[in-house]
């Protein structure tokens, strides 16, 4: 008995079940047959018996070229990885007594990040006496929340962490 293949589908002698449902190279269903018999038929046409659906009962096997099958599966996985968009977490830092123009610039960045599909972490830093006026920070974060209501939802509501108040926004 040979050790199982480490990656990819099982094929030929690595298939451990007695009976399999077989599909030939043209896609014709040959029905359920013994694995040995199916391997011999595949060898006659110069192909391998490849397990394409191992969880079915009985497992579904197809007459294929194993190398070509693996290569195409790898190409498909690479193409999916290429088109996949990873979501980043962008951070915007503010102070509780931010000026209107500065606020507008920060909000422009927040909108840009959210339109690109990234999450935005808003950090409000309190210094000195500002810490005793946390309601100013809460009001500012509520204002941000109202301004981005159409394009974003609040993922983590405002909370204090030491001298900072944090809120996370995610695109809708």
TrEMBL record:
<dbReference type="GO" id="GO:0003743">
    <property type="term" value="F:translation initiation factor activity"/>
</dbReference>
<keyword id="KW-0648">Protein biosynthesis</keyword>
<comment type="function">
    <text>IF-3 binds to the 30S ribosomal subunit and shifts the equilibrium between 70S ribosomes and their 50S and 30S subunits in favor of the free subunits, thus enhancing the availability of 30S subunits on which protein synthesis initiation begins.</text>
</comment>
<feature type="domain" description="Translation initiation factor 3 N-terminal">
    <location>
        <begin position="12"/>
        <end position="79"/>
    </location>
</feature>
<feature type="domain" description="Translation initiation factor 3 C-terminal">
    <location>
        <begin position="88"/>
        <end position="172"/>
    </location>
</feature>
<protein>
    <recommendedName>
        <fullName>Translation initiation factor IF-3</fullName>
    </recommendedName>
</protein>
<dbReference type="GO" id="GO:0032790">
    <property type="term" value="P:ribosome disassembly"/>
</dbReference>
<comment type="similarity">
    <text>Belongs to the IF-3 family.</text>
</comment>
<dbReference type="InterPro" id="IPR019814">
    <property type="entry name" value="Translation_initiation_fac_3_N"/>
</dbReference>
<dbReference type="GO" id="GO:0005829">
    <property type="term" value="C:cytosol"/>
</dbReference>
<keyword id="KW-0396">Initiation factor</keyword>
<dbReference type="InterPro" id="IPR001288">
    <property type="entry name" value="Translation_initiation_fac_3"/>
</dbReference>
<dbReference type="GO" id="GO:0016020">
    <property type="term" value="C:membrane"/>
</dbReference>
<keyword id="KW-0963">Cytoplasm</keyword>
<dbReference type="InterPro" id="IPR019815">
    <property type="entry name" value="Translation_initiation_fac_3_C"/>
</dbReference>
<dbReference type="GO" id="GO:0043022">
    <property type="term" value="F:ribosome binding"/>
</dbReference>
<dbReference type="Pfam" id="PF00707">
    <property type="entry name" value="IF3_C"/>
</dbReference>
<dbReference type="InterPro" id="IPR036788">
    <property type="entry name" value="T_IF-3_C_sf"/>
</dbReference>
<dbReference type="Pfam" id="PF05198">
    <property type="entry name" value="IF3_N"/>
</dbReference>
<dbReference type="InterPro" id="IPR036787">
    <property type="entry name" value="T_IF-3_N_sf"/>
</dbReference>
<comment type="subunit">
    <text>Monomer.</text>
</comment>
């Amino acid at each position: 008995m040979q050790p199982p293949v480490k990656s990819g589908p099982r094929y030929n002698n690595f298939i451990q079940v007695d009976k399999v449902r077989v599909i030939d190279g043209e896609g014709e269903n040959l029905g359920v047959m013994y694995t040995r018999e199916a391997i011999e038929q595949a060898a006659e046409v110069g192909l391998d018996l490849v397990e394409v659906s191992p969880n079915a009962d009985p497992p579904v096997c197809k007459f294929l070229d194993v190398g070509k099958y693996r290569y195409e599966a790898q190409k498909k996985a690479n193409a999916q990885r290429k088109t996949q968009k990873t979501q980043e977490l962008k951070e915007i830092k503010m102070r509780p007594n931010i000026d209107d123009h500065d606020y507008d610039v920060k909000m422009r960045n927040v909108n840009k990040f959210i339109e690109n599909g990234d999450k935005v972490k808003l950090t409000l830093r309190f210094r000195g006496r500002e810490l005793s006026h946390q309601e100013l920070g809460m009001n500012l974060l509520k204002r941000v929340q109202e301004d981005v209501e159409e394009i974003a939802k609040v993922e983590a509501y405002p909370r204090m962490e030491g001298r900072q108040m944090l809120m996370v926004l995610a695109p809708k």
